[in-house]
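Internal ticket #5521
Category: modeling
Description: The requester needs a full-assembly model to guide mutagenesis choices. All entity lines are attached below as received. Residue total reported by intake: 231.
Assigned to: D.W.
Attached entities:
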Amino acid sequence: MTEERKNLIEVRNLKKYFEVGRGQVLKAVDGVSFSIKEGETLGLVGESGCGKSTTGRTIVRLYDATDGEVIFDGMNVHSLNRQELKRYTRKAQMIFQDPYASLNPRMTVTDIIGEGIDIHGLYKGKERQKRIYELLELVGLSREHANRFPHEFSGGQRQRIGVARALAIEPKFIVCDEPISALDVSIQAQVVNLLQDLQEEFGLTYLFIAHDLSMVKHISDRIAVMYLGVL
Ligand SMILES: Nc1ncnc2c1ncn2[C@@H]1O[C@H](COP(=O)(O)OP(=O)(O)O)[C@@H](O)[C@H]1O
Ligand SMILES: [Mg+2]
C-alpha cells in the first residue's frame, strides 16, 4: 500500500546574502528550492563553503532570508509574528556540526536540555527533571549524566546531548548539520543509528547535511547536491 505523504517543508527560491564589508555581498545561498515530505530524510551534500549550513540555518530562522520562502506545514516561516515564530522554533530544531562548540561549557547537561523546556513552558519541577532523565535515556545516556558538564563527555556523548536538547521540545523537523563529521569514524554509525531510531519512533523529518555522499547515502530517502549557493 502506498501512503501519500504531504510536504512538511517547501523551500522556494531561498536566498541568503551576507554583507561582508565595503558594499560587498556574499551570495551564500542563491535561489534554492526543494521540498521534504513528512517523515522523510533529505540529504544535502556539497563541498565546504557551498552554503549548506546557511540553508539549514535560514530554514530554522537562525537567519532571516534575503529572499524566497520557506513554507512549513502551510505557514510562511519568514513572515511570522513573535508568537508564531516561537511556535515554529518549537517545531523546527537544529543539531550542529561541532558538539564541542555548540554546548555551553558552563551549563550542566540538565540546564542545556532544560533550556528549551523552560522557554516553551513545557514542564516544571519534578516533571521537568523526569523529562530530562527520559531524554537522556532516549539518546543512550543515563540520569547519572544529568549534573555533569560538557567537558566531562566524549565527542559522541556530546552529540547525544545535542540530540537530546533538540528533542526536548518535541520537534517535527530537525536540521542535522553534519552531526557526525567531527566524530571518530568508529562512533559515527552509532549516532546515525540513533538518529534513525528516533526518526522512526517519533516520525521526525530530517534535512541531513554532509560534505560527502558516503555519509548520507544510508540515511537519506533523496539527496540534493549543492554547489556555490545553488542546487
Ligand atoms: N555569518 C556569515 N557572514 C558572512 N559570510 C558567511 C556567514 N556564514 C557563512 N558565510 C559564507 O557563506 C558561504 C557558505 O557558508 P556555509 O553555509 O557555512 O557553507 P557550508 O556549510 O556548505 O560549508 C561561505 O563562503 C561562508 O564563508
Ligand atoms: Mg557547514
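Resolution: model delivered.
Comment from assignee: The longest strand covers residues 7-19.
Ticket closed.
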